[in-house]
Amino acid sequence: MPNVAEPMYVIKRDGRRENVMFDKITSRIQKLCYGLNMDYIDPAIVTMKVINGIFKGVKTVELDNLAAETAATMTTKHPDYAILAARIAISNLHKETTKAFSSVIEDLYNENAEKLNSTIIYDRDFNYNYFGFKTLERSYLLKINGKVVERPQHMLMRVSVGIHSEDVDAAIETYHLMSDKWFTHASPTLFNSGTPKPQLSSCFLLSMTDDSIEGIYDTLKRCALISKSAGGIGLNVHCIRATGSYIAGVSFQFFK
């Protein structure tokens, strides 16, 4: 008897197998096309490109990542494809993370958890374009064992709570201002606020400790510790002797 080819299948998030269905993939992409210019955006074309790139046993997460990357490559055809790519990627993240902010940031306890949870507007995650979201995913969203466990709105609330601590109303006001893109904090604040090492400063101005081996390497150590926490450094070296100066205790001149 001839071998019957096994149908292409996908591994669902709960571990179940399901045959790959063109219409189901297209329907998922279609649902994320709200408000886009459908004269130029074609979910079916995205689906066809995705199906051409999948393999038996592909995971749903991988399928979504491929769909997002595919849509992103089509941005040259119309900028709305970048919006669609971001929506697919963010929707994928939402399916992989818990919704409750209090579950993501365990330091937020009983008294204010409900108020903070109800404040967060997750639909605002979809206001990021694909490249903005991927930047957050790569560098800013908190990870455990390399897996992103934080949504963009979680990050903004984490930063707000980290800054304002027990002043919940101020934290909520800051969250809304950042979430609505009125302003954003600098990278060290986004990295570190609400974490065990809340170093929020962006810039540090240092002077060379001394014109000596000890002074130079002590300054280098200080710079390394600042860089470790994402601080920027401005360093003046005015006390370092000029090229050609004699060095006390040795029989040669100082050269570059």
UniProtKB/TrEMBL annotation:
GO CC terms, sorted: ribonucleoside-diphosphate reductase complex
GO biological process per UniProt: deoxyribonucleotide biosynthetic process
GO molecular function: ATP binding; ribonucleoside-diphosphate reductase activity, thioredoxin disulfide as acceptor
Protein EC: 1.17.4.1
Pfam family membership, one: Ribonuc_red_lgC
PROSITE patterns noted in UniProt: ATP_CONE
Position of the signal peptide: none
Domain ATP-cone: 8-99
Source domain of life: Eukaryota
Function comment: Provides the precursors necessary for DNA synthesis. Catalyzes the biosynthesis of deoxyribonucleotides from the corresponding ribonucleotides.
Family: Belongs to the ribonucleoside diphosphate reductase large chain family.
Protein name (record): Ribonucleoside-diphosphate reductase
Organism field: Caerostris extrusa
